[in-house]
Design goal:
The protein is 72% helix and 0% strand. It has 92 residues and is mainly alpha-helical.
């Protein structure tokens, strides 16, 4: 069996356009990331237990973590504003 060459590769431009349009409709972007083996193993184990594909599970975990960070920042902003208001009240 001969080794395939780059000249043998056929690009499916129609399929690529279709996939890109489909992805744009879902507002998702394909990326490549490096994940350590232990994390990926744990993620795939959670995926098997829950029945959710591991990439979808990773996206869900990422979304939850980012929304939690936003919540913490908004709480900190409120506390800082309240602290500034109290300082003004005490200074007067």
């Amino acid at each position: 069996m001969r080794k395939p060459s780059i000249c043998d590769v056929k690009v499916d431009t129609a399929g690529t356009r279709r996939l890109r349009a489909e992805m744009a409709g879902r507002r998702s972007v394909k990326i490549t990331i490096n994940v350590d083996v232990d994390s990926l193993t744990r993620l795939k184990k959670l995926s098997a237990e829950s029945g959710v594909p591991y990439q979808r599970l990773l996206n869900r975990i990422l979304k939850e973590r980012l929304s939690r960070t936003e919540t913490v920042h908004s709480r900190l902003d409120r506390i800082e504003k309240e602290l500034a208001r109290v300082k003004k009240t005490l200074a007067a």
